[in-house]
Amino acid sequence: MADIKTIGVVGAGQMGNGIAHVCALAGYDVILTDVSGDALESGLATIEKNMTRQVSREIISLDDMKAAQARIKTSVELVPFSGVDLAIEAATENREVKEKIFAALCNVVPKHTYLATNTSSISVTRLASTTDRPEKFIGLHFMNPVPLMQLMEIIRGLATDQETYEMAMGFADRLGKTTTNAEDYPAFIVNRILVPMINEAVYALYEGVGTVESIDTAMRLGANHPMGPLTLADFIGLDTCLSIMQVLHDGLADTKYRPCPLLVKYVEAGWVGRKAGRGFYDYSGDAPVPTR
Ligand code: NAD
Predict the structure, then answer these.
(1) Mean pLDDT, rounded, for 236-261
(2) I need a surface site. Which of 158, 194, 243, 253 has the fewest CB within 10 A?
């Protein structure tokens, strides 16, 4: 099995910068890429902010932080991926975008390099089949925020070989993550259950069953969820939630997965949650304010 020393991460958004963060802290060299230079800059700023918080909570030392930051290099080009042992794709949740990224990656990475996707819902088997190495391809589904969340869901495509699975298990172990195995069906385990619940919360809002605040309060205090479903939707990104519902709807051909029209409307408005400053809540002030 190829020894993993250098990890390439594609996409420097919420997930990509979190994956770079935990990999660098675990001692891996990291190359972080994005089509947007601004996303790379804000990704690095987020890593700095989150590591500083870990230092102030005495989870890591200042020396750990400096050493980890020094291990992260950024690039808007894929060229430096010629030196990576594992490439993890964490770009926008869109099949065509991901397929193009993997096609480009296959032209750059060496033969021994493993390929992974952090997709929340798209078929790992299908993405793998578009590459020159489906046996070395695997789903590594990190949770948001990556430095805090314990779980990594591991999804083997139909062609994924045992060596690649063992690499993934060893990698998760080094990051200190707990793994769970999910079969490669739409949205796997976590999002198969979580996102329809969020979609139902949006339906409850759409139908006037409750307000944004009453729906979130009901689920926090009535179901003991740490955050309400609409707050969580804003945290995940409404574009990502919609994409997952579309994959469930198309992939399982069951009307129970139809995306709520109000969710579609928010995405069409560009009100996609925290990352846009506005979703079911407006985040421009000190405290979030419901947007309807
Ligand atoms: P995001 O919108 O915060 O970031 C996506 C990034 O991908 C952006 O910076 C964008 O510029 C970049 N990008 C788009 N096309 C690209 C390309 N061709 N090459 C390089 N970079 C490109 O989204 P996110 O929340 O970080 O989600 C990323 C992936 O992680 C998605 O597949 C999503 O489903 C998955 N995921 C998300 C969550 C979550 O809670 N948000 C949790 C687990 C997994």
Answers:
(1) 97
(2) 253
Distance CA 213, CA 23 (A): 37
Half-sphere exposure of 183 (CA within 13 A, CB side): 1
Question: Whole-angstrom Cα distance, residue 93 to residue 245?
Answer: 11
What integer pLDDT is reported at residue 247 of this predicted model?
95
* 236 CA distance to ligand 1 middle (Å): 10
Candidate list 120, 121, 123, 199, residue with the active-site label: 120
pLDDT at 66 over 80: yes
Q: Per-residue pLDDT tens for 170-208?
A: 999 999 999 999 999 999 999 999 999 999 999 999 999
Distance CA 186, CA 89 (A): 18
Whose C-alpha lies nearest to ligand 1, atom 43?
143
User: What domains, with CATH codes, occur in the chain?
Assistant: 6-182 (3.40.50.720), 190-290 (1.10.1040.50)
Quote the ligand 1 centre to 141 CA distance (angstroms).
Answer: 12
18 pLDDT band (50/70/90 cuts)?
very high
Q: Is pTM beyond 0.90 here?
A: yes
Q: Minimal CA–CA distance to 46: which of 28, 27, 72, 64?
A: 72
Instruction: Note whether 44 and 72 are within 8 A (CB).
Output: yes
59 SS3 class: coil
pLDDT band, residue 151 (cuts 50/70/90): very high
Per-residue pLDDT for 2 more than 90? no
Q: How far is CA 28 from CA 20, 21, 68, in A?
A: 9, 10, 8
Give me the torsion for CA of 227, 232, 234, 235, rounded to 10°.
100
Q: Which contiguous run of DSSP H or E holds residue 282?
A: strand 281-282
